Amino acid sequence: MWDPQKYLSFSDHRDRPAHDLVARIGAKTARRAVDLGCGAGNLTPLLSARWPEAAIEAIDASPEMVRAARDRGIPASLADVRDWKPQPDTDVVLCNAVLQWVPEHVDLLRSWLPQLPAGAWFAFQVPGNFESPSHVVIRELASAPRWRDRVSGVLRADAVRTPLGYADALADLGAEVDAWETTYLHALHGENPVLEWVTGTALRPVRAVLDDADWQRFRAELAPRLAEAYPPREDGVTWFPFRRVFVVAHRR
Prior knowledge:
Layout: H1 4-8, H2 11-22, E1 32-36, H3 44-50, E2 55-60, H4 63-71, E3 76-78, E4 90-96, H5 105-115, E5 121-127, H6 133-142, H7 163-171, E6 175-188, H8 193-199, H9 204-209, H10 212-229, E7 238-251
Helix pairs in contact: 6-10
Subcellular location: Cytoplasm
Family: Belongs to the methyltransferase superfamily. Tam family.
Organism: Saccharopolyspora thermophila
């Protein structure tokens, strides 16, 4: 279950990669622009602003996120990205921080790209921070005797490739590929900010399998471990490095 309010509490930081990604899409015009995995719809306006003539399509698999997007006036549809098929007029696709949740996403990319019309653009970014302390600490706690029978098997596996890995896969389809990685250094504020960050993303599967009391216990055990890995400065800022992988594929 996604919590739109929790996810959007760091929207300034989470949205920045999408702006950087859209800036690398070279489409001058678009008949249809798709926000694939639109979440709460906070990034969909990037598409309508950049391509005002385009029909906007937005889908997400979370009922909570779709409701939040619709509350924003985004005509979002409830659907799993695995079931999505490009319409014949799809000229631009934005897929922001979605495909890391889909282990077979490279196979989906190999299916989607040939279905796009000539000249179409497919742009996506995925977190590349699976080996960062935030994920390592979560996995370590989940594997502890107290939690491993209920939690360790539900965490996301690392399905994210390097920029080179994605470039090779998509170039094999005849696409022109622009792939790179960036490590953002987010300045977080407040008490246990990294815990609050991962609560909205990496910890979702954990929350789904624990009752309220155990969820609070898990968070309470995780908080000091994350605080040790990401100590706050005296001025209250907590630095949170976050690596992301970007790919823009242009179908010739």
